[in-house]
Specification:
Layout lengths: L1 H8 L3 H26 L11 H24 L4 H25 L11 H19 L9 H26 L4 H8 L17 H15 L12 H15 L1 H21 L7
Helix pairs in contact: 2-3, 2-9, 2-10, 3-5, 3-8, 4-5, 5-8, 6-8
């Protein structure tokens, strides 16, 4: 219990709140997606509008990826974390292939989603840190490393798409991974490209170096009422990857159960 309390005190409130809020909105998005496209209810048509797909969804993803980058800037063993997450992401891809192969309902496969993006982003940051920011001169090169991450992140947001438009990319798999551009008729589930999100992650890492040098919150500690109000969102923020991994099977199981008892159409 004492270790748990100490661990919570070491958390940065605004990071947990932002990540938790983004995760909550992602879970809500997947719920309304499932109700419309899997259950077949004629509801939530706004998901197909431009403002939702391009602006609202992208804004939520940007917050989540930026915050993940900030967190990595003061995390230890980023390379190990990234490799573990990549292994989990590959298992997720393999699992989706098996389920899609043996299931009567073809939901699609997960080729490259947020887990893959975060894994490769964390690994990229860890390698850049090892190459450009040695332990011996950490403080002297902090600002230089910040600038490199900021410039590189900004380039990765805009340049890859411009290069693709200019020169093209013939590999269907690389188009899926880098740009979420997949062949017509191919059913993908929860796809997310590496670009521009790797760029957002590196910019988040740069922000973490600048804003969280002391690894503590930028704001004063909240009062008891605010802490109680923030607790559910902070819980989601502290356990973001676990929530993201398991929320969809739980949602589908609940929707299936509601279909069996006649409240919703069967799936």
């Amino acid at each position: 219990m004492e270790n748990e309390v100490k661990s919570r005190k070491n958390r940065i409130l605004e990071i947990d709140l932002l990540r938790g809020g983004a995760i909550f909105l992602m879970v809500l998005h997947h719920l309304i997606f499932d109700l419309r496209y899997i259950v077949g209810l004629d509801v939530f048509a706004f998901q197909e509008t431009e403002w939702f797909q391009i602006y609202l969804r992208s804004a939520v993803l940007a917050v989540f990826i930026l915050v993940s980058g900030i967190s990595s800037s003061f995390s230890r063993n980023n390379l190990r974390r990234g490799i573990r997450l990549l292994i989990a992401a590959l298992i997720l891809t393999g699992g989706s292939l098996l389920v899609n192969h043996f299931s009567q309902v073809q939901l699609g496969v997960i080729v490259f989603n947020v887990f893959h993006v975060l894994a490769l982003s964390i690994i990229s940051y860890a390698l850049l840190e090892k190459i450009l920011w040695s332990k011996e001169d950490k403080e002297e090169k902090r600002f230089q490393f910040f600038l490199i991450l900021l410039v590189l992140g900004s380039l990765l947001i805009f340049v890859p798409e411009l290069l693709r438009q200019q020169f093209g990319l013939n590999s269907p798999l690389l188009n899926i991974i880098f740009f979420a551009d997949y062949p017509q008729g191919m059913a993908l589930l929860d796809n997310m490209p590496l670009f521009p999100w790797l760029g957002f992650f590196l910019i988040g890492s740069a922000m973490g170096l600048l804003l969280y040098r002391e690894r503590r919150s930028l704001f004063s500690e909240p009062g008891p009422r605010a802490e109680k109000l923030f607790r559910p969102i902070c819980f989601l923020g502290r356990n973001a990857l676990w929530v993201y991994l398991f929320h969809q099977p739980i949602i589908l199981a609940v929707l299936w159960l509601l279909g069996q008892i006649g409240i919703l159409p069967r799936i």
